[in-house]
Design a protein that fits this description.
Elements: H1 5-23, E1 28-30, H2 33-43, E2 50-51, H3 66-74, E3 77-80, H4 90-96, E4 101-104, H5 125-128, H6 172-189, H7 194-219, E5 227-231, H8 235-240, E6 245-250, H9 259-272, E7 276-279, H10 285-292, E8 298-301, H11 315-330
Helix pairs in contact: 2-6, 2-7, 6-7, 7-11
């Protein structure tokens, strides 16, 4: 080879090397917007995770689009809440993401877990008792601890609601812990950028600490005021911030409540002086109006998934602060 060509070839090789390094940033797939937001915070400017369950869709029963299936096929890392929320996703993970590292957040040692509540009306023990003895505020340092799973079932719902309530992202202490898990997984897959992932996770944890402190202030004046939710999806938030939920019209977002459950909720509204019921965007407001007709209770809309919020790093904290503001305003 002619000697004068060597410097030129070396210069041409330089951008290829940089491109190769950039290509090492893992492809990440996530299931729901709150998890997408947590991963986005850790990845920062290095990349953007794919979202499998599009905003506004029910995560419990979902048909993959071709683009979403392709995202699973490309994934080096999949971060999802777990089979309790999206049981249908297990088969696509096995078929399409067989070589990817998979983090099932609710099944990760150190995650705070709570069992499903069986009844329409919640007893005082539901507020006083914490079933997640394995969880520590400093769970980042205790990743070897294991959660105890209590087995509960509700026969008012066609789907299986035994075991662990999967809505664990609504406890921001779980979110704080998961940021560390995500940073660790990304660092193992992409050691070149490990310092960036760790720094991004630390900034995100500090931001979440400030969010938790602000929510404590927002909700403290109304923490003892009872309320009813349409869908029993908020107990992680309730317990973390010491709120007083009186009951849930429906156990799940996938089936209508039975007449007996509705009657029990109406009685609880009278017994506890409930003045506020929280509906969700995907539910028929007519049913809420029927349940509370003549009781004097008013309604507000909350959403555990952040439907309507822009996707990205801010969604998780915006979801939590918005939930707190809506509750405080209604109560």
């Amino acid at each position: 080879m002619h000697k004068r060509l060597l410097p030129l070839l070396a210069l041409l090789a330089t951008p290829l090397t940089a491109t190769a390094l950039m290509a090492e940033v893992p492809h990440v797939a996530t299931d729901i917007p709150p998890v997408h937001s947590l991963v986005s915070q850790v990845m920062g400017d290095l990349g953007t995770p794919a979202l499998i369950v599009r905003p506004g869709a029910s995560p419990h029963d979902y048909a993959l689009r071709p683009s979403e299936a392709a995202a699973l096929e490309r994934a080096d890392l999949v971060v999802w809440i777990g089979h309790g929320l999206t049981p249908w996703l297990e088969t696509p993970l096995q078929r399409l993401a067989a070589t990817a590292q998979v983090i099932e957040l609710m099944d990760t040692p150190g995650t705070r877990t709570l069992p499903y509540r069986e009844t329409a009306v919640f007893s005082p023990d539901d507020h006083a008792e914490d079933h997640a003895d394995d969880h520590d505020d400093h769970a980042d340092e205790h990743m070897d601890e294991h959660a105890d799973d209590d087995d509960h079932a509700d026969h008012d719902h066609a789907h299986d609601h035994s075991g662990i309530d999967p809505h664990g992202w609504l406890d921001p202490e779980n979110g704080r812990f998961w940021l560390s898990l995500i940073a660790q997984a990304l660092s193992e897959a992409d050691p070149e950028n490990a310092a960036t992932y760790a720094a991004n996770a630390e900034v995100a944890r500090a931001r979440l600490d400030a969010t938790i402190a602000q929510i404590d202030i927002t909700l403290a004046p109304v923490s003892t005021k009872p309320f009813v939710v349409f869908h029993d999806a908020f107990q992680y938030f309730e317990k973390r911030f010491h709120m007083t939920a009186a009951g849930a019209i429906s156990l799940s977002d996938a089936a209508a409540p039975s007449p007996a459950r509705i009657a029990a909720i109406r009685q609880a509204v009278q017994d506890h002086g409930v003045t506020c019921v929280f509906s969700e965007p995907q539910f028929n407001p007519g049913l809420v109006a029927t349940v509370f007709d003549g009781t004097g209770a008013h309604t507000a809309v909350i959403d555990p998934l952040g439907t309507g919020l822009p996707l990205g790093p801010d969604l998780y904290t915006d979801l939590l602060t918005g939930l707190a503001r809506t509750m405080a305003d209604c109560l």
